[in-house]
Amino acid sequence: MRQLPSLNMLRVFEEVARHRSFSQAALELNVTQGAVSRQIKQLEDYLGVALFVRTPQGLTLTETGTALSPHLAQAFDHIERALQAVRVPNLRQRLRIVAPPTWATRWLSAHLRAFVQRYPDISLSVTNQMGHESLAEIDCHIRFGLEAASHCSSRLLVMERHIAVASPELFNGEQPPDLRQFPLLHILHDGKRLKVWENWLAAMGREDVDAGQGLEFSTLDQVIHTALAGGGLAVIDRQMIEKELANGSLLPITPVEVVGPYGYWLDVANDKQGLSKVQLFTEWLGLV
Asked: Could you list the residue ranges that cross the membrane (predicted)?
C-alpha cells in the first residue's frame, strides 16, 4: 500500500506553488484562503520541513518546495492524461440511449419536446444499434422483451397492449374484414416471428384462422405502413399507433385487447446508475 498524504493536500500545494499565492490558489480551487493555509500546514507537518517562506517580494518556495513542485506538476499531468484517455466525451452533457427503432420513432420522438424543455442542459443521442466497441458509452438501453435483464438494473417501462387493426378500405361499411381473407402481417424479432397473432387469436377463441400465413417484416414500422396501405391485417401495440387510431387511418377489427406478454424495459449498467443524467431520464420516463 502506497504511503501518501492526502491528494487534496498535494493538489493545494501544486496550485500555491504555481501561483506563489495562497489567495490566488484559493480562488482557483474555490475554497477559502484559510482552508488553503491549513492544507499547506498539514503537508509541511507530514514532510517535517517548510515549503514556503514569506518575503517582502511575496511568497517564495523553500529549497524543498522547489524540488517537490515540478515532480507534483508532472504527476498531476500524468493523472489528467490517463483520465482523459478513458473518459467518454461529453459524459456529463450527452445522454446516450439505445432503443428499438419503432419505439424511438413513434413513442420517444413524440415526447422528446417535454424532456428537452425540462432538461435543456442534457443532449440526447438515440441509436438503435449497440456495437461492442460502444458498450462503455451507452447510458441507457431500452429493450423489447419478456423479462428483466439479470446483469444490470432493469425495470419495466410499459407492457404492450395488442389490438388487431386494418385500413378502413378493408372494411365493408361497419363490417370488419374477414381474418381468413386477408394476409396477416407479422413482425420479426431476433430473426423469429413474434407470436402476437397467436396470442390475440387465442384470446378471441378463434381456431379457424391460420396464424402462420401472411407476410413478415423486420421492423414494426414496416408492418404499420403495410397495414396503412391496405396490404393486410396487423396486431399492433396500440401505444405505437395512437395517431393512426385517433385520425381513423387504422381501425380496430374488434375491441379485444391483449396485454403483454412483451414489454419495453429500461436497462442501465451498474456503473451508470449513479449518473445524474441517467437518474433524471429514468424519473422522466416514470412521469410520462
From this structure: none
